[in-house]
Amino acid sequence: MKGKVCIVTGTSAGIGKATAIGLAKLDATVVAVMRDSEKSNAALTEIRMRSGKNESVVHIAADLSSQKSISEFVKEFNARFDRLDVLLNNAGVNQFKRILTADGIEMTFAVNVLAPFLLTNLLTEKLIASAPSRIVNVSSSTSNGARIDFDNLQGEKKYSTFGIYGQSKLALNLITVELSRRLAGTLVTANFLHPGVIRTELGTRDVHPVLKAIAGFVKLFMGSPEKGARTSIYLASSPEVEGITGKYFSNQKEVTANPISFDEATAKRLWKVCEDMTGPSIPSHATAAS
Questions:
Q1: Helix and strand totals (H; E) in the chain
Q2: What is the spatial distance between Cα 113 and Cα 100, in angstroms, rounded to a whole number?
Q3: Among 159, 165, 234, 248, which one carries the catalytic annotation?
Q4: 93 has a pLDDT exceeding 70
Q5: Model pTM above 0.85
Q6: If pLDDT is split at 50, 70 and 90, which confidence band does 221 have?
Q7: What does DSSP say about strands 133-138 and 86-89: parallel, antiparallel, or unpaired?
Q8: Is residue 22 assigned to a domain?
Q9: What is the domain range of residue 222?
Q10: Residue 289 pLDDT > 60
Q11: In 3-state terms, what secondary structure has residue 258?
Q12: Would residue 165 show up in a list of annotated catalytic residues for this protein?
């Protein structure tokens, strides 16, 4: 991965931090995306120390719940880097109650769906110019039992923590597969993955102390962040998946996803919803490229 530039979101802890460390160990230049805080500063120091590649890891701050912050991140990235080989959308949230962002959007939908949608669209031209390049989206097996309710995408009518989370990950699947269609012929691939049942901070913030204690106990039986990062690193770096696109992976192997993930009509409808909420997006490049 020497000479390749990789963006990894959500690197302050867990799978994201482990992914950044793993890619940096492969000599990639890693742009770690997280908000400015004492925690992010500590995470950046740890990533650099554990990878042994201090100069290959940089931090560009972004609040992924804010579309303005995402746009500012892209401007700074473009000013500092002339290529992008891997965009790894790892960041995600799982809220126990309905919270709105500063943009007035439900937090889970904003971070898990709109953030990767907007970030990818703003960086697509750079990915195409750097091709062959890769988009890797971290989904979840919770998408397997989910469905898309266009009347309740943001929990407007009913808010169920795990229902809204699963739906957001299924939406990410749909967007990923639609990206693979739109980018056909450009040598930019888009794949999604389940990292496994991993010990992370997901779903443990701002919750009742009893629930937090239960979550802490359950985590004893979960896999490590390093294990959870393996498939992300594999999809970002392995020559085995060169040219493979629109597929779902787990344990570094292609697996079966919720069939809705590949429903083109649903994907196009969802794409339009996301486009209406974030602004104009990339057109299909398939015809022009061919």
A1: 10, 8
A2: 14
A3: 165
A4: yes
A5: yes
A6: very low
A7: parallel
A8: yes
A9: 5-281
A10: no
A11: coil
A12: yes
Dist. CA 195–CA 193, nearest whole Å: 6
Query: Encoding tokens for residue 123?
Result: 């960086």
Quote the pLDDT of residue 282: 60
* Amino acid identity, position 41: N
8 A C-beta contact, residue 33 and residue 60: yes
Peptide bond before 132: cis, by omega within 30 degrees of 0? yes
Confidence band, pLDDT 50/70/90 cuts, at residue 21? very high
Q: Give pLDDT, residue 224.
A: 83
Return the percentage of the chain with pLDDT > 90, whole number.
82
Contact between residue 19 and residue 232 where contact means Cβ atoms under 8 Å apart? yes
Per-residue CA distances from 159 to 102, 113, 156, 207, 233 (Å)? 19, 17, 7, 16, 33
CATH number, position 56: 3.40.50.720
Cβ within 8 Å of residue 105, ≥6 positions away = 65, 114, 154, 277
Select from 111, 122, 134, 141 the least CA-distant residue to 180: 134
- Per the structure, how many domains does the chain have? 1
CA distance linking residue 192 with residue 152, whole number of Å: 24
Sheet containing 248-250: which strands, arranged edge to edge? 57-61, 29-34, 5-9, 86-89, 133-138, 188-194, 248-250, 253-254
Cα end-to-end distance, the chain, whole Å: 28
Q: Residue 95 domain-assigned?
A: yes
Token code pair at residue 109: 């939908």
Q: What is the pLDDT of residue 200?
A: 55
